[in-house]
Design a protein that fits this description.
Layout lengths: L4 H76 L6 H83 L3 H13 L5 E5 L2 E2 L8 H9 L12 E3 L14 H8 L1
Parallel strand pairs: 1-3
Antiparallel strand pairs: 1-2
Helix pairs in contact: 1-2
């Protein structure tokens, strides 16, 4: 194995870990903001329900005022019944009284609807008000957890960045340049392990000679398909049976 390969393998793992930590760190503000928006939405909905209940109560008062006005009008009409001079006027007055009584029934139905609606809204308000403190505590605890995790991630990333400088400093400029070029071109994966004759980066089978060279050569070799730097880790002898083909295993059983 080329002396730089072990360094490159560790360097790639360090870079991947740094990338993962950076993603966590970058996503933390968005997650915290989402939690704050959840709490804001919860309190906004509660405030809207309180406003709806207040509007409901005002509408009921207005309807009750209308009811009093109609009843007063009916009372006047009934008093006027004794003042009419003709049967036609009497019948017209009775019809007007009937119309107003029908209006009373309509208003009373609307008042009843508002009362039912108020009960439903009040129930929702009481349930949400009971959950408000626990919801605030949940959001605060989750934000505190995310902030602590971010601090831990930043500390871990700083340590890894220091290790990266050490590893990169121990490589030749040519080797480091090749690694950085491939890492940028191959989505962070400049190296690929060879397993069972396959490049795990592009999953293309190597030529037999290329496979042998990767396993035995001290040179830095790259995949002919994806250009990644190749490395080979020998499998333990105990795992050799796992790498047998189906035909080989069948032959042993026979």
């Amino acid at each position: 194995m080329h002396p730089d390969l072990k360094i490159l393998i560790e360097l790639q793992q360090v870079d991947r870990n740094i990338s993962e930590l950076t993603s966590k760190i970058d996503s933390s503000p968005h997650e915290i903001q989402a939690l704050k928006e959840q709490l804001h939405e919860f309190t906004r909905t509660l405030d809207e329900r309180k406003a709806r209940l207040s509007a409901n109560q005002k509408e009921r008062r207005d309807l009750e005022g209308d009811l009093q006005t109609i009843r007063a009008k009916i009372s006047r009409h009934k008093d006027q019944l004794y003042e009419v001079k003709t049967n036609e006027q009497y019948r017209a007055m009775l019809k007007e009284i009937e119309g107003e009584e029908e209006n009373i029934r309509k208003v009373e139905d609307r008042i009843l609807e508002k009362m039912v609606e108020a009960e439903q809204i009040d129930k929702l308000i009481r349930e949400a008000s009971g959950r408000l403190d626990s919801e605030k505590a949940r959001v605060q605890n989750e934000i505190a957890r995310l902030e602590a995790l971010r601090r831990e991630s930043e500390q871990a990333r700083s340590q890894l960045q220091a290790r990266r400088q050490e590893l990169a400093g121990s490589l030749s400029g040519e080797t480091l340049g090749l690694y950085e070029k491939l890492r940028k071109a191959r989505n962070g994966m400049a190296l690929a392990e060879v397993r069972d004759g396959l490049c795990t980066g592009c999953h293309v089978r190597l030529r037999p000679q290329a496979y042998n060279d990767v396993r035995s050569s001290d040179l830095l070799l790259t995949c002919e398909t994806c250009s990644r730097i190749l490395y080979y880790i020998p499998h333990p002898e105990s795992a050799a049976g796992d790498e047998m083909t189906a035909d080989q295993r069948a032959a042993l059983q026979n």
